Amino acid sequence: xxxxxxxxxxxxxxxxxxxxxxxxxxVAIRPWHLRWGATDDEVQRPMPxxxxxPDPKVLATHAITIDAPSAAVWPWLVQWGYQRGGFYSYxxxxxxxxxxxxxxxxxxxxEHQHLEVGDxxxxxxxxxxxxxxxxxxxxxxxxxxxxxxxxxxxxxxxPLPQNYLNCAWTWLLEELGxxxxxxxxxxxxxxxxxxxxxxxxxxxxxxxxxxxxxxxxLGVKERAxxxxx
Length: 229
What we know:
Layout lengths: L1 H32 L6 H5 L13 E9 L3 H9 L12 H6 L23 E5 L2 E9 L3 E9 L4 E2 L10 E12 L5 E11 L3 H34 L1
Antiparallel strand pairs: 1-7, 2-3, 3-4, 4-5, 4-6, 6-7
Helix pairs in contact: 3-5
């Protein structure tokens, strides 16, 4: 009887801990990671690519200051991607997620220093983005649009199907004098709002993307600063 009376207390305690953890994530952790490093102005101001996903269900703006001129930072950005310069993040996680053989480089790769609108930028052999806009030396916008029922990518002007993913990812460099650069990234994601999608994106995609993107931005900072040291 004693053992039976303990079980409800244990279950109740676990439920309370879980509820407290969820509340802490919603109230404190999620608002922090959705704007990691960004100022109020950077979060609120318009950026290139905003118009491509006008009503995002996920909106994140991240920023970091790099002690190097933008001309020294841009080459690392433009060569980013699968079968290019890598991701400057946790390579072992990227490999586990399907980017076989990816290895982030610590050098500028001359053959990957050019991007144009319409070019693919892959994150895995059959998955990635398309360059939607680019201002060489300053900014580019990557667009990922998919029919999630078939897994097939959609063109810029294709109507969105019932089960869709629409993602705009903007990378922007701003000069801070002659020797520093502000690196700002904004991600806007829209998807069909099923209950399963709401759980998947809020519980897994949002925090997972932040962890990988933060590491990538720190990786760019480390490489660019080392190159000009």
